[in-house]
Specification:
By secondary structure, this protein is α/β, with parallel strands linked by helices. The protein contains 18 helices and 19 strands. Helix 14 crosses helix 15 and helix 16 crosses helix 18.
Length: 602
Amino acid sequence: MPIRHLWILFFVLFLSCGGPLPTFGHASAERDYTSAWNEFQRLLKEPGQAQNRNAWLAARNMFNSAFQKAPEGPEAPKALFYLGRVHEEMGLRFGQASDFSQAADYYGRVALRFANHTWADDALLRKAKIHLEHLNDSAQAYIDLLSIVHNHSKGDMAPQAQAMLRELDSTFLAKVNASGAGPGSAVAATVPTSSSARTTEPAVQASLSGPVTSPSRSAGPDPDGARLTQVRYWSSDEYTRVVLDVNSEVAYSHRLLNPDPDLGTPHRLLIDLQGTVLGPEAPAQLHVADGILRQVRTGQNQPQVSRVVLDIQRLEDFRVFTLEGPFRIVVDISGAKSKVLAGARAPQASAAGQPRPQVSPRSEDVTGSLIEQLGLTVSTIMIDPGHGGKDPGAVAHGLKEKDINLRMSRILGRMLEEKGFRVLYTRTTDVFIPLEERTAMANAQKADLFLSIHANAHPNPNMKGFEIYSLNLARNQDAVRVAARENAVSSKKISDLQLILTDLMLNSKITESRELATKIHGNTINGMRRTHPKLADRGIREAPFYVLMGAKMPAVLIEMGYLTNREEARLLNTDAYLRTLATNLLQGVLAYRDHIERHAKL
């Protein structure tokens, strides 16, 4: 019998047994992984060879080859994990911070791309320890540990993560007590407390274990009687944000009720506002029907207790937090990904009648098919011109920040469109939009990046320069000052805000936003120095900005310059300077997109 007939017979017999076709790429990847693992173990056992950096790099290349040959195969998550291990070992032996950063990056990819793999929690724990012990980033370590507790609660690393969280909590509180700071003091903390996470976590778990009531927040009702004045929302098929406007700060509690098949009721989230009555404009019933939230109902549960009930059809997770100036309660709800995307409803406008995001025509195929398959797209960008309407922002030298921000946003938006991006705006006219609605617009429209455009101000008229912020804890008093100004609250409120920020950071794109800020900052400063060599570089900073909270995409706040500085105010009032600045900001966005594409190919 000819050989080709034997091959045909072999495959017919193989398929008749119900087995899959052999995957030679997977077999080759498995061989490479085994060889790499053996080499890794050899280096650990031979101290002499372990001091040879080239030997470690050879092992790294072997693990990388195993991953490249079958990036979705069974060896892929293990190969990524050991790529992290190799760089971690090199960091320990050769003392280069870049090795530790690379190790943390690989561990992060394991947790992101293979979230259900049994090694995902191991990768997160190693990542947390690297940030804590070698990169001096306790805030990021805290986020990684929270991710283990929330997303891998049954994994074998959860107890160790819990213990590390308790240790970080006690360390932070010891620092606060040692400083003598009271609740209203602006403490430049490097480790967040877990108070917010601990009050929110039981309510999230209630969806699995039954109704649980969260503790009330400490606040007293308005002596003249607090009122629930309005209910607003923004939504899409995967995300809904509901905002409860109250005319003064109040205590509240919330609990989640499981669906009741006998009664035909969905998940119900009950929010009780203490010492509060319903205002005349508060809707008794608000139909949403976006696939996640069915409706919102309000009622006077007791003479001095208003109750808001959210009927949730499809619940994956939720968070409840408050914002100040004015006081409002924000509820973010995530639904499990809908299978029906093509015919999904358009995002709903808020009940307050705020304008829908302005959209430019979508361009064709900005990113490659591989990027699309991995979900690592950078094709839709939401631009947020800061302030607007009744909120002028900084005012100096006859200029209003809100006007400069809008001019710059239009210029930058046109440049992004010319490069093929789809551009959306939170506002295109001089209108006021609350800060929490701006991020909600970006989430509802599934934007890939969020750029909030601002101009700065300072009591010292000599202060000048370009700086960029991403969401995190404020690490110095200047960051506290800027966050307080942009949030329209006092600096004393920022320390309270940092206590609730920890839990919000868990699902925020903290690392990605920091990377976006780095790319934009570097390209902007390098480009601007060619034409404006005296431009001051005020660096990359982190602070808790309302407008960035809850963003499900990389998000940054850009401070173009200081309106309170006469020379920078003059420049910012010219389209020529704004175009030059926008050109360099564009290069930063393009650099970030290219960075994402390169990572997708690894």
